[in-house]
């Protein structure tokens, strides 16, 4: 319904220049000669400038000028000074509208180029995981809080290894290019460690050391005070279990085939990556059953901290409970979940959201 209303509004706006010219003709025709419809003719090319192509803008200006000439010729008013002034005004505004159109098109071209670069950067930093690795179906989704943005401080990665499918989902404190740089460091370190380290705890320590090196290299205050929350998961091939290491991140959810949803909080809360100087203790992986038909959902706090108009947080555990049909495919699950969060928050979110779902068919 909302999309239909937006479609109607767009059609109306596209027709607006023609409607303005028609309104100007009607106004001039039915009113006394002391009244003028010049504002309607003047507005038409200005409205067309950001909406139409250069050719369409020129055509709109020409039609406005032509309609004004024909209208006053039929009414016998062309020799009058007021009519000549109106024509000069409409011609001048039409020329300005063409110049505005050129500026808008150049800005659109630069924006399209920037968007293409951003898309390429997103694919390089956050490549889409394979839809299937071994017996697991996998899907990932990144939802930026700011419309038109592509990547921020949320991250995910999936890596097959001799020890099973390993994955990471995390959230870097901060915004901007600094956060994107930390994302690249974490994902790069994870891909190497996931292949080489024999335990999930050792993978977490490799990430810790990688961030420590990055902090030592940088001198910015944001880097010195930053941290990264992550969940590391390991899905051994054929064992029917999932191992987790949680560093200060929202707990993953296990969605069973019958619609039951179970959160997997860490038994012993641990500090995020990058805060080892405050306190340090050994990472301990927890294990949980991962039966056939179940889906593991790992997410960032952009999901659980999305608020509605009454300032109520979205509860993914409650929102996903009991809906078995949406869990047949991970991609369908994430699509439905992202749409529901958008509706809950009224179409806008305060923070980016990364989602990763792994299903054992």
SSE layout and pairings?
Blueprint: H1 2-30, H2 38-48, H3 54-75, H4 81-125, E1 132-133, E2 136-143, E3 154-161, E4 164-172, H5 176-196, H6 200-217, H7 221-224, E5 228-235, E6 241-247, E7 253-255, E8 261-263, E9 286-289, E10 295-299, H8 301-304, H9 316-320, H10 330-344, E11 353-359
Antiparallel strand pairs: 1-2, 2-11, 3-4, 4-5, 5-6, 6-9, 7-8, 7-10, 10-11
Helix pairs in contact: 1-2, 1-3, 2-3, 2-4, 3-4, 5-6
How is this structure best summarized?
The chain is α+β, with helices and mostly antiparallel strands.
Protein model, in words:
By secondary structure, this protein is of the alpha+beta class. It has ten helices and eleven strands. It has helices spanning 2-30, 38-48, 54-75, 81-125, 176-196, 200-217, 221-224, 301-304, 316-320, 330-344; strands at residues 132-133, 136-143, 154-161, 164-172, 228-235, 241-247, 253-255, 261-263, 286-289, 295-299, 353-359. A six-stranded antiparallel β-sheet has the order 1-2-11-10-7-8. Strands 3-4-5-6-9 form a five-stranded antiparallel β-sheet, with helices on one face. Helix 2 runs parallel beside helix 4 and helix 3 (54-75) runs antiparallel to helix 4 (81-125). The longest helix has 45 residues, at 81-125. The model has no long low-confidence stretch (mean pLDDT 82).
Features:
six-stranded antiparallel beta sheet; alpha+beta; 11 strands; 10 helices; five-stranded antiparallel beta sheet
Oligomer: single chain
Compute the average pLDDT: 82
Q: Summarize the helix and strand pattern as letters.
A: HHHHEEEEHHHEEEEEEHHHE
Rg, alpha carbons: 29 Å
Gap between N and C termini: 35 Å
The order of strands across the largest sheet is 1-2-11-10-7-8
The helix fraction, in percent, is: 40-55%
- Specify the overall morphology: elongated
Return residue spans where pLDDT drops below 50 for at least 5 consecutive residues. none
Relative strand content? 15-25%
Q: What class do helices, strands and sheet pairing give?
A: alpha+beta
Total count of strands: 11
Tally of separate helices: 10
Largest sheet: 6 strands, antiparallel
């Amino acid at each position: 319904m909302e999309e239909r209303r937006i479609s109607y509004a767009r059609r109306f706006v596209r027709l607006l220049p023609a409607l303005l010219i028609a309104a100007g003709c009607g106004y001039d025709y039915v009113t006394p000669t002391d009244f003028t419809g010049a504002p309607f003719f003047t507005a038409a090319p200005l409205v067309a400038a950001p909406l139409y192509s250069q050719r369409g803008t020129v055509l709109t200006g020409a039609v406005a000028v032509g309609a004004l000439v024909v209208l006053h010729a039929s009414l016998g008013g062309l020799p009058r000074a007021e009519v000549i002034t109106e024509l000069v005004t409409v011609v001048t505004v039409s020329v300005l509208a063409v110049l505005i159109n050129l500026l808008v098109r150049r800005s659109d071209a630069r924006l399209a180029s920037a968007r293409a670069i951003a898309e390429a950067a997103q694919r390089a930093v956050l490549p889409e995981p394979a839809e299937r690795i071994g017996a697991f179906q996998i899907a990932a989704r990144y939802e930026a809080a700011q419309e038109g943005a592509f990547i921020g401080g949320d991250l995910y990665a999936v890596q097959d290894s001799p020890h099973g499918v390993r994955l990471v989902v995390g959230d870097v404190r901060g915004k901007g290019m600094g956060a994107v740089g930390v994302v690249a460091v974490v994902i790069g370190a994870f891909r190497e460690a996931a292949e080489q380290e024999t335990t999930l705890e050792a993978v977490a320590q490799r990430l810790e050391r990688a961030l420590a090196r990055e902090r030592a290299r940088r001198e910015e205050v944001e880097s010195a005070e930053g941290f990264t929350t992550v969940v590391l998961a390991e899905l051994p091939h054929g064992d029917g279990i999932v191992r987790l290491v949680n560093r200060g991140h929202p707990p993953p959810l296990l969605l069973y085939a019958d619609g039951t949803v179970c959160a997997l909080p860490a038994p012993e809360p641990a500090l995020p990556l990058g805060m080892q100087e405050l306190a340090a203790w050994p990472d301990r992986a927890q294990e949980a059953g991962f039966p056939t038909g179940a889906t593991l959902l790992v997410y960032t706090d952009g999901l659980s901290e999305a608020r509605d108009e009454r300032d109520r947080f979205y509860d993914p555990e409650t929102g996903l409970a009991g809906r078995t049909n949406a869990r047949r495919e991970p991609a369908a699950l994430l699509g439905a979940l992202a749409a529901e969060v958008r509706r809950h928050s009224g179409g806008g979110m305060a923070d980016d959201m990364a989602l990763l779902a792994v299903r054992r068919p």
